[in-house]
Amino acid sequence: MPVVIETNGLSKTYRGPGGGTPALVDLTLSVEEGEIFGLVGPNGSGKTTTLKLLLGLLYPTAGEAKLFGKNPATDAGVRSRVGYLPEGPYFYEHLDAEEVLGFYAQLFQMPREQARERIDALLEQVDMANRRHVRLGQCSKGMVQRIGLAQALINDPGLVLLDEPTSGLDPLGARDMRNHIVALKKQGKTVFLCSHILSEVERVCDRVAILHQGRLLQVVRVNELTGSLEDHFVQLVEEAERH
């Protein structure tokens, strides 16, 4: 399968008064087209830094990251093929779902008729069509998360980056988000998600990369695990800390 995400020796050190703090060290991995790939690790393991490097929001200290074979920090064309749902997305509370998506459609300079059709389709896809005119200030966290997913898809991206997509959701909301993520794969999209909720990752991901203290411990294929992802994760991290 074609490779959508590729990192080679990707590293990031944050500079400060007391010297440098390595947040990511020599990350090398690849994500194939059409798979759901998870990135997990304890707090401070480098997950968010990795996402920011993939989005081109940070420049690496060493190594490189490529999306669709291009550098996301310098190639605006490749960024237009990516959708991003941040953790805890925030939108102006006086807007409704349709207005939020209309704003993002304008950012992509989408023609009005095309934007209208795209917004209608996305609101149906995330089960918000009947609540399209509810103000964001009156929406539940699950509804806001679904609107956030819709905005990440407004440009019909080939790659969707999700940061803690089920964090803070109740069981029904988490189930709905899982279903939406699996549906993206069925549409042929590649999904790269970061999460600390291992049970959620295990349910949707094809492969998972485990980070610890900025270093990649292992990439595992979920369907080949003999036990739970959580047990495997704990064992790997405990071994790394002993060494």
Output mean pLDDT: 93
Strands, count: 9
> What Rg, in angstroms, do the CA atoms define?
18 Å
Q: How many separate helices?
A: 8
| Residue runs with pLDDT of under 50 for 5 or more positions | none
Give the arrangement of secondary structure elements:
Elements: E1 3-16, E2 19-32, E3 36-40, H1 47-54, E4 62-67, H2 76-79, E5 82-85, H3 97-107, H4 112-125, H5 141-152, E6 159-163, H6 171-186, E7 190-194, H7 198-204, E8 207-212, E9 215-221, H8 229-242
Parallel strand pairs: 3-7, 3-8, 5-6, 6-7
Antiparallel strand pairs: 1-2, 1-4, 8-9
Helix pairs in contact: 3-4
Would you summarize the structure shown here?
The protein is of the alpha/beta class and 243 residues long. The chain is 35% helix and 27% strand.
Describe this structure in words.
The protein is an alpha/beta fold. 35% of the residues lie in helices and 27% in strands. Strand 6, helix 6 (171-186) and strand 7 form a beta-alpha-beta unit. The protein is globular and about 55 Å long.
